[in-house]
Description:
Blueprint: E1 8-13, H1 18-32, E2 36-43, H2 61-76, E3 80-86, H3 108-122, E4 126-129, H4 134-137, H5 139-154, E5 173-178, H6 181-193, H7 209-214, E6 221-224, H8 229-238, H9 253-259, E7 262-269
Parallel strand pairs: 1-2, 1-4, 2-3, 4-5
Antiparallel strand pairs: 5-7, 6-7
Amino acid sequence: MSPSNQQRLLISFAHPDDESFGMGGAIAKYAEKGVDIYLICSTNGDAGTVDDGMLAAYESVGELRLAELACAATKLGIKEVIPFGYHDSGMMGSPDNNNPNCLFQADDEVVTEKIVREIRRIRPQVVVTFDAYGGYGHPDHIVMHRTTTRAFYEAGDPTKYPEQGLEPYQPAKLYYSSFPRLSLRLWIWEMRLRGQNPRQLGRNKDLDLVEALHRQMPIHALVDVSPYQKTWDEASECHASQQNPRRTTGLSDRVRRLIYRKQEFTRAYPAPNGRRKERDLFEGISG
């Protein structure tokens, strides 16, 4: 395939682990198909809590998290990881949100310009980012949804950021990644069976699964990742300092693989027409 028609996918996420826990199966699939995959990781993930033993070989939590990301990127076949270097913001109300270097405090214009620069440099046909609620309400995810959506359209506008010295470029499609609805419902059901409040999960009781389910957007693409779940698991295991959401329930591996056999996406652009769901994010793109 010549450079002019080489398929390229840009994923615009916030933290080390978003790529694996979120859409690792789809990334592995497209990498094996020969798609050039680029990942923006806007923060270093340094607001997370990790066991002291894991930090022995690292100067900081952020350094550890980025090393885990490098491991996962290799497993998944990501061509390039693009770090923006912002401090992790934590969930809403977290003291980390007051850090002047965190993504939550960043100027949207600055973040948008960074993403526009990468879109124009890489020239991807497809861009993927978070949905409007950021999956589960994380401020960094919501910032990346907002700025990536804006950058998707501004990258093709010659009046925007001409000082970059890069040719304007308009990608063909924009998607928002999504949690599988069935997995959220099962997770909520299991929490209630255990006597736990599904609206107050996590170390700080700030993860609301019920709200996450209510905020789900319509699904327009279902990508079958059944043959790639082993690679997906291996990439997720690279993020040993974090809790893999696909393994937090009491489901057997067989049931878990059934639930996660397809990854769901909302198509933001072009606007969907009709009820038929796409099976390929590059569907309809020629050259």
